[in-house]
C-alpha cells in the first residue's frame, strides 16, 4: 500500500474511524505548529504509554 496514505484499524468500523480522526487531528496540529515556526518535539515512549492508558480508562467503555 505504498503511497496510499493513512491506514487505521479498530475492533469495528466506528473504532477504526476514531483512530483515523485522531491521526488526522494530530497531523493538523503538527502542520499548524510548523507553519507558525514552532519546533514540534515528539513525546517519549513512556509519556505516550501513560497518555494512552489515561485515554483508554477515560473514554473507552469497559466490556460488560
Automatic annotation (TrEMBL):
InterPro entries in UniProt: Aldolase_II/adducin_N_sf
The protein's name in its UniProt record: Uncharacterized protein
Organism: bioreactor metagenome
